[in-house]
C-alpha cells in the first residue's frame, strides 16, 4: 500500500497565505488529507470544510472534546466530554472525518496511573457505542510528559494499549505521535509494529525540536514509514511539525521522504 499523508494545518498556516491557496498546494504535492486542532464553531467549521472539499482534500482528524490537560481521567468531566463527543461524532460522520482526538488529561494528585486508566476506560465506554454506530474512531493521543505536556497521563504506548483493551471497542484506538513517543520510550518501529492494531492515527515531527523530518534530528522517518506501509495499517500519517525554513519546501520534501510503497521493498 501507499501511505496516506496529511498536513496538520495550524503548524503550516500562519495567515500569510490564503487558506485555499495553501490547501490547493497541499493537494498538488500529493497529500490526501488535512487536520485541525480544537473544535471550531459550527459556522467556521462549515466554511473550512467547503474549502477543504473544493481543493480535493479530506479533513481526517480534529479534537473530539475540549481540554488536553483536563480530560477523560476525571469522573467529573465525563458528562461534559460525553456530550461533546456525541456532537463531534455526529459531525465527523456527516463530513466523512475518520477520527477524533481524545485526551487522557494530566495526572491527578492521589490517583495512580492504573486508577486513571480505569477512569478513562469508563469515560470512553460511554461514547464508544455511538462511535461504532457512526463509524468514527476515537483516537486517544499519546503525548510526552517530560518536555511538552508535563504530567500528561497517556504518555506510554503500553498504557494506551491497556486502555484500548479495557474499553474493547473497534472504534477506540490510539493516536501514536512518533515525536512524543521517541522522547518517552524510543524503540519506535518495534513498538508500533506490536501495537499497530490499536493505532488509529500517526503524527510526525523531528526530535529534538519538533521541526522538519531532516538530518538535524534523530528519527529515521524513511524506515518508520516503511514499517507502517508494510503493516495492516490503513489510516493516515499526519505531519505536525514547525518548519524552520520555507513551509512548502518542507512539505514537499516530507511527502517524498514518507511516500513509501510496499512494492518498493521487493
The H/E string reads EHEHEHEHEHEHHEHEH
* Biggest sheet layout: 8 strands, parallel, barrel
Structural class computed from helices and strand pairing = alpha/beta
Distance from N terminus to C terminus (CA atoms, Å) equals 13 Å
Strand order of the largest sheet: 1-2-3-4-5-6-7-8
Overall geometry? globular
Name the CATH architecture.
Alpha-Beta Barrel
Mean pLDDT: 94
> What is the count of β-strands?
8
Strand fraction: 15-25%
Overall structural domain count: 1
Q: What is the CATH class? A: Alpha Beta
The residue ranges in which pLDDT falls below 50 over 5 or more consecutive positions are none
Radius of gyration, CA atoms, in whole angstroms: 18 Å
Helical content band: 40-55%
CATH level 3 topology: TIM Barrel
Say which CATH homologous superfamily is assigned. Divalent-metal-dependent TIM barrel enzymes
- Supply the number of helical segments: 9
Amino acid at each position: 500500500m501507499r501511505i496516506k499523508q496529511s498536513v496538520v494545518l495550524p503548524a503550516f498556516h500562519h495567515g500569510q497565505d490564503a487558506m485555499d491557496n495553501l490547501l490547493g498546494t497541499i493537494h498538488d504535492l500529493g497529500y490526501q488529507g488535512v487536520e485541525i486542532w480544537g473544535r471550531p464553531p459550527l459556522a467556521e467549521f462549515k466554511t473550512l470544510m467547503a474549502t477543504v472539499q473544493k481543493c480535493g482534500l479530506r479533513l481526517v482528524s480534529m479534537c473530539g472534546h475540549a481540554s488536553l490537560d483536563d480530560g477523560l481521567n476525571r469522573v467529573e468531566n465525563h458528562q461534559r466530554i460525553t456530550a461533546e463527543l456525541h456532537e463531534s461524532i455526529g459531525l465527523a460522520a456527516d463530513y466523512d472525518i475518520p477520527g477524533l482526538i481524545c485526551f487522557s488529561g494530566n495526572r491527578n494528585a492521589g490517583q495512580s496511573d492504573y486508577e486513571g486508566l480505569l477512569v478513562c476506560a469508563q469515560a470512553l465506554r460511554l461514547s464508544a457505542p455511538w462511535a461504532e454506530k457512526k463509524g468514527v474512531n476515537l483516537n486517544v493521543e499519546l503525548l510526552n510528559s517530560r518536555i511538552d505536556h508535563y504530567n500528561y497521563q497517556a504518555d506510554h504506548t503500553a498504557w494506551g494499549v491497556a486502555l484500548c483493551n479495557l474499553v474493547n471497542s473497534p472504534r477506540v484506538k490510539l493516536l501514536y505521535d512518533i515525536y512524543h513517543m521517541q522522547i518517552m520510550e524510543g524503540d519506535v518501529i518495534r513498538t508500533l509494529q506490536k501495537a499497530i492494531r490499536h493505532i488509529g492515527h500517526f503524527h510526525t515531527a523531528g526530535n529534538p525540536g519538533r521541526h522538519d523530518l531532516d538530518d538535524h534530528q534523530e528519527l529515521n522517518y524513511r524506515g518508520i514509514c516503511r514499517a507502517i506501509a508494510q503493516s495492516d495499517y490503513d489510516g493516515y500519517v499526519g505531519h505536525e511539525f514547525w518548519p524552520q525554513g520555507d513551509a512548502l519546501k518542507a512539505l514537499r520534501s516530507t511527502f517524498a521522504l514518507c511516500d513509501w510503497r510496499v512494492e518498493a521493498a521487493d
